[in-house]
Design goal:
alpha/beta; four-stranded parallel β-sheet; 17 strands; 38% helix; binds pyridoxal-5'-phosphate
Length: 400
Amino acid sequence: MSHVMDTYARQPVAFARGEGVWLWDENGKKYLDALAGIAVNTLGHAHPRLVRALAEQAGRMLHVSNLFAAPWQEAAADRLAAISGLDEVFFCNSGCEANEAAIKVARKYGHERGVNEPAIVVMENSFHGRTLATLSATGNRKVQAGFEPLVSGFVRVPHGDLEAVEKIAEHNRNVVAVLVEPIQGEGGINVAGIEYLRGLRALCDRNEWLLMLDEVQCGLGRTGKWFVYQHADILPDVLPLAKGLGSGVPVGACLVGGRAKGVLKRGNHGSTFGGNPLVCAAVIATLDTIRDDNLLDNARRVGATIRDGLAAALAGLAGVVEIRGMGLMLGIELAQPCGDIVRAALDAGLVINVTADTVVRLLPPLVMSEAEGRMVVERLAPLVKAQLAQAPAQSAAAGR
Ligand code: PLP
């Protein structure tokens, strides 16, 4: 009997080590990693610069708490401020905690403006985490079911629908912020679009709301710029980050600027582990390597290689609804549920994922080369074709 709580449906493969975009399982079988631990391993596996930074820091000191000066946080926060255009960073340990901090910022901002029951506009199909507040913000009933009563103070609208948010602005005086993923990850690689983001920024400015962009999955270079909002030339007020921030070391951050600057003050928030010397060493090594190795350009270039390659290889296939995304955040939506393809891909030595039942999701490490990108296409395209070939039988078996 396993003593690990059974909260995940796990594939029957145990990885033993990795190098770059490659993983090896316990039996020595080699896999091409096009998932990066769900957008986490920015620098791939065992990146020498990250390994060195972590080993050096582990040899000096792992943790001292937030009761003392933290020059390592200053150094990491300076970098985050420089790349984001925002002002202050709160360090935490995960994406849901970064969003919890964002929700607290919004509520405090509301109270300071005399709104006693502050509300946040959130989106259908969104995903913000598994804590009570973040699962309440999440637009997926499966994530919420069984955990009611939900945290109140969220107003939901369709993702990408600016008019729906405008309507709320007209009649809901409690709204103080909008929380949105510029590209929905778990929801199926749904790109909000540049004009939508600009429209939200303008709407938030008109109403003095906070624009809170959850870039936990889509941010930190994956789309070819540091952050998706930079494609739209706007700035958010609040920016929750995690996943790729430490290249595999658990670290999250909630960045604030604009109207959100200075809202959280001493004593308003905290985290025992948040921003300890080890994770900040990972953040610094990750951000400096992205900059020094031109990984933003690489994400754009290799992302285009994979996307164009897939578009060519899958052209004319009726079961392919859409290939979408930006840079190295790509989704292939199929006309049928396709969860089985994950296992088939593992058999073929490729690590991928399926989200929202019908969307094959690719989130490779930012260090993937063009040749490796072409390999993703070579391994994946036949699997998609095979999946589509067997889909009618599966649908029939499912009684559809
Ligand atoms: N926000 C987004 C957009 C995410 O994709 C995720 C995780 O998938 C989270 C928040 C939650 O992050 P974590 O699992 O680190 O709590």
